[in-house]
């Protein structure tokens, strides 16, 4: 589907969070802990069926809950945390449970994926590493995210003419 047009609604929030918590100020993998804390997100790791990366929902007190599949590798878990975070901030609370896979609402899933890419792949690092000839896989390894998120951040950069 490519970069959803609605991503532009989300970017001011993401830019503010990136600035406030200095998320992109180093070359280290982006640490979302301070943002998760600020949003009162209760994060836990549990074994979930194969193929489901995680899900989020609001409990009966409307506190956001996020469950990440403990069986997956760390790069996937970090990418899922950012994806679910976007669902929590962008998509209205309700009974619906969002999963990273197999969700019929493609627009919400695309927003969560591209929003996660925007959070976890700093543009400066992406540009420097691409210029240095690194592959998306190598950049993903350095940033501890999935290769898919690096590719999606590159697509955003092309769409926004950031390169
Ligand atoms: Zn999702």
Summarize the structure.
This protein is α+β, with helices and mostly antiparallel strands and 163 residues long. Helices cover 50% and strands 11% of the residues. The protein has a four-stranded mixed sheet, covered by helices on one side.
Characteristic key phrases:
single chain, 163 residues, alpha+beta, Arc Repressor Mutant, subunit A, 4-stranded mixed sheet, 7 helices, 11% strand, binds zinc ion
Bound molecules: zinc ion
The major pleated sheet works out as:
4 strands, mixed
In one word, what is the shape? globular
CATH domain class of the domain at 7-120: Mainly Alpha
Q: Portion of residues in helices?
A: 40-55%
Sheet/helix structural class: alpha+beta
CATH topology group of the domain at 7-120: Arc Repressor Mutant, subunit A
What Rg is obtained from the alpha carbons, in whole angstroms? 15 Å
Instruction: Note the quaternary state here.
Output: single chain
Beta content: 5-15%
Beta-strand segment tally: 4
Please provide the ordered H/E string of secondary-structure elements: HHEEEHEHHHH
Please explain how this structure is put together.
With 163 residues, this protein is of the alpha+beta class. It has a domain at 7-120: Arc Repressor Mutant, subunit A (Orthogonal Bundle). The chain has helices at residues 7-20, 33-38, 74-90, 106-120, 123-131, 136-143, 147-159; strands at 42-46, 54-58, 64-69, 98-99. It has a 4-stranded mixed sheet with strand order 1-3-2-4, covered by helices on one side. Helix 6 (136-143) crosses helix 7 (147-159). The longest helix is centred in the middle third of the chain and has 17 residues, at 74-90. The two termini are 21 Å apart. The mean pLDDT is 91. The chain binds zinc ion.
